[in-house]
Amino acid sequence: MLRRTALALALCATSCTQADGPSATESPPPEQQEVLGRAEQAAESLETPSEANSIRFLEQSSFGPKLARGVTPAPVGTVERVMSQGITQSLTEQFALQPAAPYDGESAQDLGSQFFQRAVAGEDQLRQRVAFALSQIFVVSQNGIPESTRTPYSDSRVALAGYLNLLSQHAFGDFRALLEAVTKDPAMGRYLDMANNRAFDKQGNPIDPNENYAREMLQLFTLGTDKLNLDGTPALDANGNRQRAYSEEQVKAFAHALSGWTWNATACPAKGAAISTPDYKNPLMPCNDNHDTSSQVLLRGVSTAAGGTITTHLNQALNNVFNDPNVPPFISKQLIQHLVTSNPTPAYVKRVATVFKNDGTGARGNLQAVVRAILEDTEARGAQPPLALRPGFGHLRPPALFVTQVVRWLDPTLDTATKDPGLKLSNWSRTMNQWVPRAPSVFSYYPPNAPLPGADGLVGPEFAILDTATLTARANFLHEFLYTSAATNAGLTVDYDLLPSSNAELVAYLGRYWLHGTMAPELEQKLLTAMGDSRANSLIRKKKLALYLTFLSPSFQIQR
Amino acid sequence: MTTTRRQFLRRATQGLGFLAAAAALPRWVGNAHAATLNGYSGSRVAVCVFLLGGNDSNNILIPREANAYAKYLAARPTLGLKTDQMDLINPTDLAAGSFALPKTLSKLRAHFEAGRAAFVCNVGPLVLPLTKADYLAGGTSVPENLFSHSDQQDAWASALANPGSSAVTSDIKVTGWGGRTADKLHGLNTSAPPDYPEVTSFGGKPRFCAGVDRKPMMVAPDGTLAFRTVTTPASDFDLLQQAALADVMTAQDGNVLETGYAGIFTTAQTFSAARAAARDAAWAQLPQATRDAIEGYFVPTLPPEDTARWTLHTQLYQVVRDLVAGAMPVSNAGLGLKRQVFSVGFGSFDTHQNQDVDQPKLLEQLDFALDAFQQAVTLLETQAAFGSNAPQATLFTMSDFNRTLLENGDSGTDHAWGGHAIVLGNRVAGRKLYGTFPNLDLSGSLDGSTDERGRWIPTLTVEQYGWTLASWLGLNTAAERDYVFPNLAGYVADAVARSFPAQARKYKVGFMLAD
């Protein structure tokens, strides 16, 4: 039944607006049953995942699979540990893990370096991976926080460190709480002008508050631009047209409802005045004098209370948007895109969004349950994606994940005491246009709806930053890592002796692990031919040639 | 490369058995003959210079008529240029000395006076022509997210001021007018290798460069686009590795994402090698004296400590090198392109503070780089090596927005809207101001400003500006126009229906010489 549903949905993945067409309940024609291939589609239990399934799971839920290399019990984040614990328990274990240390904005270490160090070496892999996904939905860029002379610290570093910690803390929490924390966060307050957003001028005359935060909160953090069905497809009106998720009037209404917040300080400023010294260590402060207390008509005809206080109105506004039917599919689909596949079937989105709506205990917006639903789903699990979905399944590894997955497979020793390997990794990612945590705009490094080149109707978000220069940078990162002393100089020392020495064994190893058993015979043959060429005239060159080619192969670049 | 692209499309289609419709055909299929070389059968290039951060163009073109200048100074007691900081210009059709340029743009001024440069006044993103009342009424005819850097950069780059409410398809929304122009110009280019990208970028806004079908050559600002090798020149091992990598790209598991990745890889590998070879070979076709002269134009005359961080002249030098490679006929080892678009950019024009110190430095850099480029192109036009494909180049500026006429309390200015753009080249109908210079009176009815701080409501749209340049490159038909500039027809129709001034009722601005 699951198989048939998946196929039916795949058939209308881009053209149907309703997920549950009648075909989902009919048997597929015999030739399709044959194509499905029973052996490959045999469901694996979540308790006893195969090695390939476990590797896939770690590709989706971490910054890259690692091997235990004989250490027992198998360490957190290794393929062997997932195989022995099962998917369900691995998730439970990851949910409980906390960061080894919070991001530190007053450390000399660059935040990008701190990010990459955590990503390649931290145990709380899933938390950091989900927080990274959230950081690309609720975007604040370090480049968007100006330095002031009024604070005793670096504004941009302290602001972003606090913000990254916030996302990490809320990664498995309640979406409503996350939304409120983000709304009151000083980094966001600066980035999208929530701070000092007054409803009055100094003469006490009403003015239009800045709409920046209100607009992006609706467009990018919660609703998107179009009304959605629970399965993430556009909800069309009677004439077949898309419908706007919110109106300009509603943007203004939210801007008024969220007016009056300023930097944390000992006292509120006078009406119409601002606090000029930012405080990036504490949430924004409510100042009722600068808040428009009038009633505002929000989404779905709901109004804020006339004469309500600034905090009441913020609660009412956030409750209103949190309860909008667009939020579950909008957020669920993006999380799927970041973790598993760029073009999930509507049914997959619907299954996850249903959990977003209600985690089974009646709670809405339980991100832990949502993440579990994403990673335990039949489209995510198994040794390979469902056969019928394979032609369009997966996502291009974004630069940061490409870097970390290369590093975690090669498993170098990290010298963080005398060197700064994280910074080197961050700079490599930057050459490929993903400079963490410095997204170029509130639209992040790449938008979730960027088209996949050459495939009408499919999206490929990460392709928005793949061009001749950045693709060359992908190859050149790897070349520099493998063939120069750059990695060693940065404190990343790889022991290439850990890899098999014979050509055939190495290719088999790369296929088994790095491509979790999906290496096509065609690719195997190409690798063997290259390694067997007399111009690859030493063992280490043969090895590095195989690594270079495999990491850059389409089969690896697209995480499937 | 044609074969590769066809394979690419075929594979993409094969892999999509589950899609309701096959992949749409590229935009250039079926209309390759719409764009024409009628304007000029040789090589033409347009160069976009993006002034990132929002250039204060109120301080690059200053009215010297007494009343207007008094209003300018009143709004800018600190930042307003004094008479000894400016030089007069004498635009055609206006009283002599009616405007001035800052002394920091003295080289540009010389080109202006010689008829090679023009200003396009008060141009900015618009959906429909707007009166002040229209602006205040709001609604979907007002551009979205005015005064926001990212949105207004995108609006300039995409020529779409209402991406949220517009009914155009998403492929138009995520692309730029440079790239979409390339979609339509592609049929004019019979290059070797085939399908060499029309657009090359060394900086600026990536969106400007992206077409729906035609993808740009994105190159680092230093001009380098090359796969690293173990040794230089490439060793046998390097050659093996490069060939093996190309081979590996053909293994795509029947997956359309893999096909997409491999397609971009093939573009990079195929064209980066062709580009590098053509750049060297075409350059070598020029006489040594020509090469030396061009190199010399780009060596700053100011002390190194003032110019060490300049980036625009180095980008424009790379444009010259790629322009030479592109325009050089295949028979002379060039790429043999007829039409190219380049993108460069630099900032920080977001002068909220200390504009009196910072903007003059930026303008000095701009002035030097534009002049160097103009001199280089003028020299190239007469080079025999190009045969009948001698290049013509038009350079034009874009920026996020203009800034408030009224200065703020930090010796700076804030985000505004319509501003003045620069066009430069030997095919520009220069020594002229196009459009309407805004009324700088901040005390009156403020009909031309969104508010009392002096944020001009544009009186020309980016799309009129862009279509003028795209037409010069060879775009021709209404269908092409509406594809690249989706709001332009509606804009003009509305201007006609509501009797806006003549300039709003024309699709083009007259700043290019007739062919």
User: What is the CA-based Rg of chain A, rounded?
Assistant: 25 Å
Strand proportion of chain A, as a percent range, falls in under 5%
Order of helices and strands of chain B: HEEHEEHEHHHHEHEHHHHHEHEEEEHHH
Give the amount of beta strand of chain B, in percent.
Answer: 5-15%
Mean pLDDT of chain B: 91
What is the helix tally of chain B? 17
What structural class do the secondary elements of chain B suggest?
alpha/beta
Number of domains of chain B: 1
**What is the overall silhouette of chain A?**
globular
Note the total helix count of chain A.
25
Shape summary of chain B = globular
Question: How would you describe this structure to a colleague?
Answer:
- The complex is a heterodimer of chains A (560) and B (515).
- Chain A is 45% helix and 2% strand.
- Chain A has 560 residues and is mainly α.
- Among the domains of chain A are: 177-325, no CATH class; 395-559, no CATH class.
- In chain A, helix 7 crosses helix 18 (399-410) and helix 12 crosses helix 13.
- Chain B has one domain (2-505).
- Chain B has helices at residues 2-15, 66-75, 106-113, 132-137, 149-158, 170-173, 177-185, 206-209, 236-248, 256-285, 288-297, 304-307, 312-327, 355-380, 462-473, 478-484, 488-497, and strands at 43-51, 62-63, 86-89, 99-102, 117-124, 199-201, 217-218, 339-346, 391-399, 419-424, 432-435, 460-461.
- In chain B, strand 6 (199-201), helix 8 (206-209) and strand 7 form a beta-alpha-beta unit.
- In chain B, helix 3 (106-113) crosses helix 14 and helix 10 (256-285) packs across helix 13 (312-327).
- The interface between A and B is large, with 75 and 68 residues.
Task: Describe what is shown at a glance.
The complex is a heterodimer of chains A (560) and B (515). By secondary structure, chain A is mainly alpha-helical.
